[in-house]
Amino acid sequence: MAFPGKTDPNQTFSPEQLQQLRQAFLQIVFQPQAQTGTSTDQLLAQINKTLEQSSGNEPTVYDNGSFRSSATGTASALTQQVERAITQVLGRTPGRGTDGFISALNSAFPVSATGAVATTPTRSVVSLAGNGTGFNGQLSVSQANLYRQASIIAADALRILEGLQPFEPTADIDAVAALSALVRSQITALVEEFGRIDQPRKERVEIYFKTLLGSLTGTDGLKQTGYLEKLGEQARLITTTSSRRNGIATLPITAEDEAQVAGFELLVGYVGTLKTIWESYAADSDIEIQVTGRYSDRLSRANIMLPVINDSNASFMSAMDSIGFSASERRSDAALFTTLGTPPEPVTLTVGSVTANDSATKVITFNYSLPDMTVNDFDEWVDRFATTEAPSILSSSGQFGLDFVTDQADTLFWVIGFVLHYIQTKPNPRMLSQILSYPRVKQTLSELVFQLNTLADLGVGSVSSRS
Questions:
Q1: Is pLDDT above 90 for 200?
Q2: Do 453 and 313 have their domain in common?
């Protein structure tokens, strides 16, 4: 992979080495500046910084009528709710303009070979190689297996739950119905969580199992103390020694009675099986937020990051709108990044191994040039990459497509990262420098740089990094 800094032209860097370079570069850009002067000077500088942050978040006369993301909080609650619903269905933000929305709509509801339009958004469909449709890449293989197993088990468990009827005349029918509805909703929520695009939330899954199964106690076998136990007690279907001794259960008399008891025990066993396959998945995926080398894991994370990057880029443009730097001005020659000034001083980064056969710490000194493009050129590049090119490549080009997308994210990182570094280290009175240095603009620019870095990090563990 190429590094845009002017170093040895024959030197190449692996994704792991570029990751180290990016981290070292970010530390330079965002390192805290040493405070100098008297305590009064430091206090005044702190007050000035506070006022800058406050003014940067105040609405301006240019905010009305300009494009803004609902994430800024200016949209009404109903608008935010509608935008979130659209994003959830499409699987990504629709972008700006009709072209972006149509592209997202076509991706979410593709046309089959017979000309029929899909009725279910592709992001919510888990397809495995065994059913003839192939794996769609929205979930990792391990999570898709978890969701597939849970869906099959839960479907039968819910059918059994529907058929449970107490055979004891003293059973509270209303309580049984209420508890059955509660158990049904929790099992359904578990399966939905297993199929969550952003990965299952461990804490939420565990609280569902705790409320369903409770703790394991007793000397005569498995004793449920959660909602399943309450359902068994109210329906008089628990037949353990302790429950009979306490007068809770009635022994089955007919074959139909015994079938009800067996059905309840099977329901409890199904929920236990769901917990077992979840624990197996959690043990295999106990990597927290670390990036793994598995292709499917990195692919699902890349699909999540693309709309995030598009949102960050839209917020960057919206911040410039808010201070009166409109879209038409961003197309002018005055918006060329090269107008920021003369080439900066050399940058020095301290990183680990930079060659495959050398593990020693290295100091890399390089010069960089500002990109010869306007702000609008960069905006269109990121927008097209995040909404059109990258999703298409990820869905059709496998591991090599993922390598290409992360490589592009690395390139975009350095393109705009050099601009951010320049305005941090060489502020000047030129118009574009003043625009980019405005607090709200610089904040959104920094967020975009970090999001691009996160996507580029998914290149670690790729085919190219092992070649």
A1: no
A2: yes
